[in-house]
Each structure stands twice: as structure tokens, then as C-alpha cells.
Specification:
The chain has 527 residues and is α/β, with parallel strands linked by helices. The chain has two domains: 224 residues, Rossmann fold (3-Layer(aba) Sandwich), CATH 3.40.50; 271 residues, Ribokinase (UDP-N-acetylmuramoyl-L-alanine:D-glutamate ligase, 3-Layer(aba) Sandwich). The protein has 21 helices and 19 strands. The strands form two sheets. The protein has a twelve-stranded mixed β-sheet with strand order 8-1-10-19-18-17-16-15-14-11-12-13, sandwiched between helices. A seven-stranded parallel β-sheet has the order 4-3-2-5-6-7-9, with helices on one face. The longest helix is centred in the N-terminal third of the chain and has 21 residues. The radius of gyration is 27 Å and the shape is elongated.
Length: 527
């Protein structure tokens, strides 16, 4: 499913008007009519009452004027609070504004703080609202009158439908520009925007309806987009198929290099998750002193004891045995529970530099990589990195807050700079490809905020790589299935389930995708 930036959507609108010849006023009419339908279904149904429209003087306000007209034509009491003067409204928005007096729709000019203060008591009595102040182009902090109005609207705690995007929300990052409307629902036009699908933006949007406003598909396709939502149907097409006479030699052999003292569970979960996702064989290479523990923790995976420092940490002396072990394998996972011992770093760097197979790097593997990230440029085979925001910050030499301010830019930048596939974990995990494309994962829930979930994801990616999927396809399918496994468990309890339970639910998630690919809602319904 396509997801667009503000600039990409504006280009589609412009090409529809200038190249295809569909007037902008028709697009605005279609937008307002569709948004009205969304308002009636999401907001008005079951709670009828007077409606207030907060409108700016641009096209977003114009959409609000169309909505006011349609509501009035249905006998619904509606009044418009124009955060400007009528003479400053131009173009298609002005044409629609001029129709409202003919329907006895009050248009109250509220261009400054004094006018707004004078109307607040009246506005407090209005039970239902439409936010048509700003559109998707906002990228500066909200100030002055608009800041006061948005803060006031939020304080009312009334049901609100946002037109295209909640006013004050940055469409491309999902971050509020100082302050943003907290909508009950959002009616957006043409395609979903990034902010509708990622945190914190989706918490401001509520339930999201995508309204077809008449942009021809042939016109939309002339604008290349670099974002998409992963869907169950897409993942079903990525999953491997097996002939009836398949055996473990057909379904791939993966090598997992992992574990240190105190972190054997991470290694065990990564190895077992690879099996749970369908790998035919998994070999778990671990420090020699920990091998007995891993043999008992991983019944299906084979283990390979490696040279260590005597305290449960791998050393560079293990490299020759790791290199022999990856012969005949399809992929390698590096990092779960590996530890941060200095003597382990040299081993990690040699594997990064020399491993000729697709390599999944996670956890402590990423922390060692951060010390010499240019090694990615020497990789002879594809690489998948699976950082959480803190690990991403170390890889990009910035703060975690910097990563979270624009997660898409962080994931895209790392993937492009080092020609790797990046899985940036967190609420709405992202998958970024080396060519700049980014996918947003809609599965998963807050119950996954517990230890071991990342190790299970690493194993899932590894298991799909072992079966012959490309690094990108393995990443896309794994993050979707990983989140879906947790969603299946959350149907019984919202939290308290374990990473191992998510791991064991992976086959159920696969079955569900194959039988009935789920399509989670775009936003977070608030009622």
C-alpha cells in the first residue's frame, strides 16, 4: 500500500489539475464530500449535535467549507470559525466560502486573539468539531493565534474529525510542530501520509479513512513514492512454497554466532525462532563453556562450541572455526547475547569483513559494528541490520532523540549510506532498502516491550533467509510475522506474554497470513 510525503501528494494534485485537466475545484469538492461521509460515520452517528468548523484560509479550509455546505444541506446545524478574514481567502477555497451564506451557514471571522477570546464561551457549547486549519504542508512550529486555537480545541475534549491531517502535525515525520490537534478520526485524501502510520502521529490521527478524490491511477503512478505499508497480502506473496517431497536439505541451513555468560537465552531464542520460521537446519555457534547450556535450551538446533576467553566470551581465535562452519550454509546471524568484551570485537569485525553469505547483525553485533561502521563498505555479501533506536543512534553517531524525531530519515539514511537493509525496531517498525524505499510495519503492540523480542526477530529474518528469500523480502516478512505473532497473543492479554511465546506463535502467524492475510487499520481508533 502506497504511503506518500506531503510533496509527493502535492505533485499528484498538481499533475491531475495541469496535465490531466481535472479542475482543482472538482478535487476539493470530492475531498469535502468524502470527508463529510467520514464525519457522519465516525463522529456524528449516534451523537448528533451542532458542528463547528475551524478553518484556515487555504485549501484545507476550503475542504472544510465544502463539508459545512454538505452538512447544512442535510439539515445539520453548522457554523464556521474562519481564522482569518474572508477577503484573504482565495481561489477554490474562496469559491466554496461564498456558497455558505446562501445556505444560512454562519461564517464567523476570527482573525486575531481578541476575536477568538470573544468567541470561546460560544465555542465551548459546540459538541462536535471539524479541524480544517492546516493541511499537510506544515513544517514549522505552530505559533500565535493558531497555537491558542489548537490548545483550546484539545482542552474541550470533544470528538474531532481532522481534514487530511490533524493541524499542527508534520506530515512527513509524524511529530507535532509544537502543538497539534488530537483528532478522533482523520479523513485523508488520495493516499495515506507517513504521519498517519507512525508514532507519535498516529496517536493524534485516530481512525484514518483514505478518501478517493478522483486522481487517476495513471497520474498518481507518474509520481514515484518511496514509502509503503506492509500488508498481509504482500507477505503472503513473499513466503516460500514447499513441494510435497521437501526435506530439511531443501529448506536451508543457517549459522547463528551468539551468546556470552549471562546471555544464553538470546542465542537460544534466535536459533529456535529461525527453526520456527521454517529453516531446515540451524547451527548455533557459542563459547565452549556455554555449550552444555545451549544444548539443553535448543533441542532442534545443533550447537558448535568455539574458542573463548575462559569467561564465556568469544575471541578472535574462533574465527577459523566460524569460517569453516559457514561453508554450506545460506546465511549467518551475528550478535544475539554476544556481549561487549573487547576480545569479541575483533572476531565480530573479521566476520563482518569476510563472511561471504547474507549476514543479519543484531544486538551486541551492532554495538561492535558501531566502533568501525566503515566495515560495511567491505562486506562481500548483503547485510541486514536490526537496531533499536539506541543502537541506531550509536551507528549514526547521534542521540536516540534525534533518531526518534525522524525515524524514516534515520533508517533510510543508514540503508543508503552503507548499502544495507535496515530494520529499525520500535512502535511501527521500519524496513529500509539500499535504494531509499521504506516500509512501515502495521503489526505488533505495546506488549512487545519486554526482553528477548529482538532476538526472536533476528531468528525470524535468519530463518527466512535460509529458505532463499532475499534480504529485503526476509526483513519485510519477518517483521510482519513477528508483530502478528504478538497480536495473536495480545488478543488474550494485552501484555505479560513472553518473547518465547511470540517465537512459538510464529507458525500460527504464518498460517493466518496464508489463509486470510490481515490488514490492520491505518490509525488507532479512539472510540
Amino acid at each position: 500500500m502506497r504511503v506518500v510525503t506531503a510533496a509527493e501528494m502535492q505533485a499528484m494534485d498538481r499533475n491531475t489539475i495541469e496535465t490531466f485537466g481535472l479542475p482543482g475545484r472538482v478535487l476539493m469538492e470530492n475531498a469535502g464530500r468524502g470527508a463529510t461521509r467520514s464525519f457522519l460515520e465516525r463522529i456524528y452517528a449516534g451523537r448528533p449535535g451542532r458542528v463547528g468548523v475551524l478553518a484556515g484560509r487555504g485549501n484545507n479550509g476550503g475542504d472544510g467549507f465544502v463539508m459545512a455546505r454538505y452538512l447544512a444541506q442535510q439539515g445539520i446545524a453548522v457554523q464556521v470559525f474562519l481564522l482569518s478574514t474572508q477577503d484573504r481567502v482565495q481561489g477554490d477555497a474562496a469559491a466554496n466560502l461564498q456558497l455558505l451564506p446562501k445556505l444560512q451557514v454562519p461564517v464567523i471571522e476570527t482573525p486575531d486573539k481578541a476575536a477568538f477570546d470573544a468567541r470561546q464561551n460560544e465555542m465551548r457549547l459546540i459538541p462536535l468539531w471539524i479541524d480544517a486549519i492546516f493541511g499537510t504542508g506544515l513544517n514549522a512550529d505552530v505559533q500565535g493565534l493558531f497555537h491558542e486555537v489548537i490548545t483550546f480545541l484539545n482542552s474541550l475534549q470533544r470528538p474531532v474529525l481532522a481534514v487530511d491531517i490533524p493541524s499542527g502535525l508534520n506530515s512527513d515525520t509524524g511529530q507535532p510542530c509544537g502543538v497539534a490537534v488530537r483528532a478522533t478520526a482523520t479523513a485523508t485524501f488520495g493516499h495515506a501520509k507517513i504521519a498517519h502510520l507512525i508514532y507519535p502521529g498516529l496517536e493524534y490521527c485516530g481512525a484514518v479513512d483514505v478518501i478517493d478524490i478522483g486522481i487517476p491511477p495513471s497520474v498518481a503512478e507518474t509520481i514515484p513514492t518511496r514509502q509503503a505499508l506492509i500488508t498481509g497480502r504482500q507477505v503472503r506473496g513473499l513466503l516460500p512454497t514447499r513441494p510435497a517431497d521437501a526435506h530439511k536439505g531443501h529448506t536451508g541451513h543457517a549459522l547463528v554466532v551468539a551468546a556470552s555468560t549471562g546471555k544464553t537465552g538470546a542465542a537460544a531464542m534466535a536459533a529456535t525462532a529461525a527453526v520456527r520460521t521454517g529453516a531446515g537446519l540451524v547451527t548455533l555457534a557459542v563459547p565452549r563453556s556455554l555449550n552444555p547450556i545451549l544444548e539443553s535450551l535448543t533441542v532442534e538446533a545443533m550447537t558448535l562450541p568455539l574458542p573463548e576467553d575462559g569467561q564465556g566470551a568469544l575471541t578472535e581465535a574462533a574465527f577459523s572455526e566460524v569460517a569453516r562452519a559457514w561453508e554450506g550454509k545460506r546465511c549467518v546471524a551475528l550478535g544475539p547475547g554476544l556481549g561487549l568484551a573487547p576480545q569479541t570485537r575483533a572476531l565480530v569485525h573479521r566476520i563482518l569483513r569476510d563472511c561471504p553469505l547474507p549476514l543479519v547483525v543484531d544486538a551486541d553485533g551492532l554495538n561492535h559494528l558501531a566502533a568501525q561502521i566503515t566495515l560495511l563498505g567491505e562486506r562481500p555479501a548483503p547485510t541486514v541490520l536490526t537496531p533499536h533506536p539506541g543502537e541506531m543512534a550509536r551507528l549514526r553517531q547521534c542521540t536516540t532523540a534525534d533518531v526518534q524525531k525522524d525515524r524514516l530519515a534515520a533508517a533510510r539514511g543508514l540503508a543508503q549510506q552503507y548499502n544495507v537493509v535496515v530494520i529499525l525496531k520500535g512502535g511501527r517498525t521500519l524496513v529500509a532498502a539500499p535504494d531509499g524505499r521504506v516500509w512501515i510495519n502495521p503489526t505488533g503492540n505495546a506488549g512487545m516491550a519486554s526482553g528477548g523480542m529482538g532476538d526472536v526477530l533476528t531468528g525470524a529474518v535468519t530463518g527466512l533467509l535460509a529458505q532463499g528469500l532475499s534480504p529485503l523480502d526476509a526483513a519485510l516478512a519477518a517483521v510482519f510475522l513477528h508483530g502478528l505473532s504478538a497480536d495473536i497473543l495480545a488478543a488474550q492479554a494485552p501484555w505479560g506474554y513472553l518473547a518465547t511465546e511470540v517465537m512459538h506463535a510464529l507458525p500460527r502467524a504464518i498460517r493466518r497470513v496464508l489463509d486470510d492475510p490481515p490488514t490492520p487499520p491505518l490509525g488507532t481508533p479512539l472510540f
